[in-house]
Amino acid sequence: MSKKPSYYKVVIENETYNILAYTVRVKVDVESLLKRYNDNLNTLVQIVPEAIPSTKRHFILALYYTLRNHIRGKGVAKSPHLEVLLYLFGTRQISKVLEVLSKFKHVDRYMLVLASKGNPEDIVSLMVKRGEIKVLKTNNGVNLNCELCDFSKEELESFYGEKDEIIEKASILKSLMLTTKL
């Protein structure tokens, strides 16, 4: 019996990508990791502080739309890994994203998301072997921090109720609104 892979498969314009998400401890500079492992559209890696509002579905959609746009030659940002951030934050202003990320320079836990035409687990294993990251867990949970979004938790609760799924949906919908502007 073969082991079930811990990643998701998505097909974009006849290209198959395997996507995974892990919570990790980064032992080297995040920028150097991004430069080392982002390989045009063969491998797309993004690492953000765990406190950034996100879910696995949100990341998968951000990766999907980024890859789709760049495959079609219609990417918003020059670098696909920067465009992932635009979708995560639901904005076209990279300066706004970088301003928020600057508040998290010395955090301990990150979410690593990776889309690859090959086996993404091999890339994570290489990062671990090189001592660049330590995998803490496969990320299946919801991590929402509404103060970093453009809406307050109170606003959402008064309109939708108090469920994390509703907040997740609102975050995803905000990100997807970018696709109508592309």
Please supply descriptive tags for the structure shown above.
182 residues; two-stranded antiparallel ribbon; 41% helix; alpha+beta
Q: What does this protein look like?
A:
With about 180 residues, this protein is an alpha+beta fold. About 40% of the residues lie in helices and about 25% in strands. The protein contains seven helices and seven strands. The strands form two sheets. Strands 1, 2, 3, 5 and 6 form a five-stranded antiparallel beta sheet that branches. A two-stranded antiparallel ribbon has the order 4-7. β1 (about 10) and β2 form a beta hairpin. α2 packs across α3 (about 80-90).
Strand content: 15-25%
The largest sheet is: 5 strands, antiparallel
Number of E strands: 7
Computed CA radius of gyration, to the nearest angstrom: 16 Å
Q: Work out the helix count.
A: 7
Task: Pick out the low-confidence regions.
Answer: 140-151
Helix content: 40-55%
Distance between the termini: 44 Å
Shape: globular
Structural class: alpha+beta
Average pLDDT works out at 78
What is the succession of H and E elements?
EEHEEHHHEHEEHH
